[in-house]
Amino acid sequence: MSALVDPVVPVFFLSDSTGISAETMGNALLIQFPDTKFERTTIPFIATVEHAREVVAMLDGLMDGPVTPLVFTTAAEDVVREELNCTRAPLIDFFGMHMQRVESVLGMTGRREAARLHGVGDVQRYNSRMAAVEFAIEHDDGQSLRALDRSDVILLAPSRCGKTPTSMYLALQHGLFVANYPLVDEDLERSELPAAIAPYVERCWGLTTTADRLSRVRNERRPGSRYASMDQCRWELRRAKSLFEGNRLPTVDSSAKSVEEICALILQTRKIRAKTAERVRRHQEENPA
């Protein structure tokens, strides 16, 4: 007799724009169900009633299957949203749930345009985020040490600890200029920060993980190598921890946290650091030597 297997719940994120908002808000709810397996599908740019009807037909067809799908939508266009709401599948309409309430509080009618959902209307903010993404790409994995003085955050960690996705999320979602630097054996054998990074210690964060997870991730890239061995992973993580502690760097363990959670911790620490620096500055102004 075969063991029972928990069903995988199909989840759909629908949008008449990129789908990023639907994914973000939907996943914020799904993360509360860690024991449930989800199969996620994003359907962006549902710009016409005809396309919406095709999506509804597909969702309705799944209602006859063994597992009921779950649907999240942030469609802003009224005609598209109304069509999507015709599905028999359980649908959570983030836009429809909240837009009328916001309009009521503000005493005015919103434009309900799909493109505005991701801030395209705010050109300055959009351009600043794109500049941050370009900076993150240029400074990924220590490829460039140019203009580190422009960085808001510098991530330090051994290879494959989650530096790149964290950098890209902070850039794209928060417009921060993020550089990330891989700690190699030569760096880990010393107690000081790498020379190029040391002047910016107040902007540095350390990322770490578990040796077991790091070894598994590295084995996917280089199976059976010294790079992926448990002994090497343990040594690198132990030395990295010592380096972070010795230089008083805030550290985030990426082994059991999502990228969103890691970034939230970094943002929170940045605020605390900024407030502390401001208090020190004011104290020095009020109490000159």
TrEMBL record:
| Residues involved in ADP binding | A157, P158, S159, R160, C161, G162, K163, T164
Enzymatic reactions: [pyruvate, water dikinase]-phosphate + phosphate + H(+) = [pyruvate, water dikinase] + diphosphate; [pyruvate, water dikinase] + ADP = [pyruvate, water dikinase]-phosphate + AMP + H(+)
GO MF, one annotated term: ATP binding
- Per UniProt, which keywords does this protein have? Kinase, Nucleotide-binding, Pyruvate, Serine/threonine-protein kinase, Transferase
Q: Which Pfam families match?
A: Kinase-PPPase
Keyword flag Transferase: yes
EC numbers listed for it are 2.7.11.33, 2.7.4.28
Q: List the InterPro entries hit by this protein, alphabetically.
A: Kinase-pyrophosphorylase, PSRP
EC class of this enzyme? transferase
**Which family does the UniProt entry place this protein in?**
Belongs to the pyruvate, phosphate/water dikinase regulatory protein family. PSRP subfamily.
Cited NCBIfam families: PRK05339.1
Q: What job does this protein perform?
A: Bifunctional serine/threonine kinase and phosphorylase involved in the regulation of the phosphoenolpyruvate synthase (PEPS) by catalyzing its phosphorylation/dephosphorylation.
Q: Could you tell me what this protein is called?
A: Putative phosphoenolpyruvate synthase regulatory protein
Q: Which gene encodes it?
A: ppsR
